[in-house]
């Protein structure tokens, strides 16, 4: 199956999911995660609406896939993955108790910036070092998230099962993305990276979105 066809299918699935998620979440109370700053003892700056974040990611990825289906370009892939991976880490960090705006923005920036190493890995004459440096940078945010999970367990605030499962699932998908990027360069077949990008990005956004739907339903059920 050609990459353009895969992108077209992915764009359709993502758009359909965005509509479904909007309909499913329309009858539920919004799940809000705080964003704080340590000013004068700490204040809440704002809150992230998980439903809006999930739908935004679905729509953004659907638009990127639609553009790529019409006019394929590596630029679209890197713009899409940098933003999707960065926002996903931002949200997963929030799930695990990270609320400080400086920490959240830093985790987003590090994750999104690590994608630039993959651009070099795909184009450089010697790809090993860009990949190695990029992987070393990209794993840092997940290490911070793991630290918060372990810390929560130590102090008796064990993360919810859904949060633990979602964190592991999204980490595995991110790892698979990097593995496939390396595999494509080693084999000298860019099509591997293109197809893997579409499939893994679609799965990443979809898993996050449906976890938000499930989590929202659990909140509603618990409140009844």
Task: Describe the fold and architecture.
The protein is mainly α and 224 residues long. Helices cover 79% and strands 6% of the residues. The protein is built from seven helices and two strands, in the order αββαααααα. α2 packs antiparallel against α3 and α4 packs antiparallel against α5. The longest helix has 34 residues, at 190-223. The N and C termini lie far apart (47 Å).
Strand order of the largest sheet: 1-2
Radius of gyration: 18 Å
Segments where pLDDT lies below 50 for 5+ residues? Answer: 219-224
SSE ordering: HEEHHHHHH
Q: How does the helix and strand content classify structurally?
A: mainly alpha
Cα(first) to Cα(last) distance is: 47 Å
How would you summarize this macromolecular structure in one to three sentences?
This protein has 224 residues and is mainly alpha-helical. The chain has helices at 3-25, 50-70, 74-95, 101-123, 128-154, 161-187, 190-223, and strands at residues 32-37, 43-49. It is globular.
Keywords:
mainly alpha; 224 residues; two-stranded antiparallel ribbon
């Amino acid at each position: 199956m050609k990459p353009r066809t895969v992108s077209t299918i992915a764009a359709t699935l993502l758009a359909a999911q965005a509509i479904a998620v909007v309909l499913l979440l329309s009858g539920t109370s919004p799940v809000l995660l705080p964003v704080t700053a340590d000013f004068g003892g700490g204040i809440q700056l704002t809150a992230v609406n998980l439903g809006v974040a999930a739908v935004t990611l679905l729509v953004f990825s659907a638009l990127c896939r639609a553009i790529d289906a019409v006019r394929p370009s590596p630029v679209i892939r890197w713009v899409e993955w940098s933003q999707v991976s960065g926002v996903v880490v931002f949200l997963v960090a929030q799930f695990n108790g990270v609320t400080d705006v400086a920490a959240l923005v830093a985790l987003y920036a590090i994750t999104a910036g690590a994608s630039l190493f993959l651009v070099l890995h795909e184009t450089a004459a010697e790809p090993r070092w860009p990949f190695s440096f990029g992987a070393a940078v990209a794993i840092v945010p997940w290490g911070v998230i793991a630290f918060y999970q372990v810390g929560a367990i130590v102090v008796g605030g064990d993360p919810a099962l859904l949060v633990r499962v979602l964190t592991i699932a999204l980490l595995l998908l991110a790892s698979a993305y990097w593995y496939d990027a390396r595999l494509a360069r080693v084999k000298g077949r860019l099509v591997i990276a293109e197809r893997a990008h579409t499939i893994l990005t679609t799965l990443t956004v979809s898993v996050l979105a449906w976890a938000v739907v499930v989590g929202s339903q659990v909140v509603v059920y618990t409140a009844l």
